[in-house]
Write a structure and sequence with these properties.
Elements (H helix, E strand, L loop, with lengths): L4 E4 L6 H8 L3 E4 L9 H8 L5 E4 L7 H7 L5 E4 L9 H6 L3 E3 L6 H16 L2 H9 L19 E5 L3 H10 L6 E5 L7 H4 L1 E3 L2 H7 L2 E4 L13 H6 L5 E4 L8 H9 L5 E4 L19 E3 L8 H19 L12
Parallel strand pairs: 1-2, 1-3, 3-4, 4-5, 6-7, 6-9, 7-8, 9-10, 10-11, 11-12
Length: about 325
């Protein structure tokens, strides 16, 4: 009996996941990276006849692409927690199983969030730029930033990553944690976090951390209007998705001092063009989507995504299934 065929759509898939697949299926790896122009055409060419897909790419997975695979296609797994690059309706209307890789990346993404918070609050970008340009100044009023101790931290989306961020920030003697989201989180009580409406969170927080999924409801939740609600000393940190923020509105708010600074791990588009206006701002600290970029985390994500599709092909529940809502 022929082995089931699993398409891996990006050649950067970690070796540990590939070796796991080889034990039970025939993995087929598209020999391109996301940003290479040959990537999407190669995916469309290779997908025909595949039984499962590991969609480890930023390309959108649409019904047109799924139809190229054929009727034998049964299962898909992302190598990510988010599914905003998957057209869920197209997947579920075709009766396909879908999995993702949540939780395993909570801690390392929370680490990046804390790093961004400190970097943006303490003006790392400005300081490094002045060192590099030979304009290092000094004095008691030079390069003053914002304190974390005694502050109010607002977390938009108190899921696994949001909770991990709060646990870390407790060590900084934060005075108060607020959170907003679609539902009450039972973990919030032990974390000492109070659920409030988004508008109240924005008005009262010294630090606003975005860690919610990107949906039609959350797209551009940070915009010209909501930015005006925030304190002038506020620091915005986004480790969710770039689409949560209206970047033109953020640029204007940062340029005109409506908020103090921003730290971003996610932007739109990715990669961000080198001439993008946000990159010109001294109070906007951006890193290139490094949230889950540790060796151990990426290996764990590859292992989970491989197990997701192999379980599905064997008629077993995926490790982390995504259900239709």
């Amino acid at each position: 009996m022929a082995l089931k065929r699993v398409l891996i759509v990006n050649k950067s898939f970690p070796e540990i996941g590939l070796e796991l697949l080889k034990k039970k299926v025939e993995p087929i790896v598209v020999p391109h990276l996301d940003y290479e122009p040959e990537s999407l055409p190669a995916i469309k060419k290779a997908i025909k006849g595949c039984d499962a897909i590991i969609w480890n790419t930023k390309h959108q997975l649409t019904g047109d692409i799924l139809d190229l695979a054929g009727p034998q296609l049964k299962a898909i797994s992302t190598m990510s927690s988010g599914t905003d690059h998957i057209n869920l309706e197209d997947v579920f209307t075709r009766g396909l199983l879908l999995g993702n890789t949540p939780h395993v990346l909570d801690n390392c993404v929370a680490d990046i969030a804390v790093g961004l918070l400190i970097a943006a609050a303490r003006r790392f970008k400005e300081g490094v730029d002045e060192i590099m340009s030979g304009e290092w100044k000094y004095g008691v009023q030079w390069s003053l930033g914002q304190d974390i101790t005694g502050s109010t931290v607002g977390v938009v989306g108190l899921g696994g990553i949001g909770q991990a961020m709060v646990r870390r920030l407790k060590g900084f003697d934060v005075a108060r944690f607020l959170y907003s989201g679609r539902s009450e989180k039972p973990e919030a009580k032990n974390l000492g976090a109070l659920r409030v409406p988004l508008e109240q969170l924005l008005r009262e927080s010294d630090f606003v951390l975005l860690s919610c999924p990107l949906t039609d409801e959350t797209r551009h939740m940070i915009n010209a209007n909501t930015l005006k609600l925030m304190k002038r000393n506020a620091v915005l940190v986004n480790i969710g998705r770039g689409g949560l923020v209206d970047q033109e509105a953020l640029y204007n708010a940062l340029k005109h001092g409506e908020i103090f600074s921003a730290g971003l791990d996610v932007v739109t588009p990715e990669p961000l063009p080198k001439d993008h206006p946000l990159l010109t701002l001294p109070n906007c600290f951006i890193v290139p989507h490094l949230g889950s970029a540790t060796i151990a985390t990426r290996n764990a994500m590859a292992t989970i995504s491989a197990n997701n599709v192999m379980h599905a092909l064997q008629g077993q529940p995926m490790m982390y299934p995504v259900y239709k809502t």
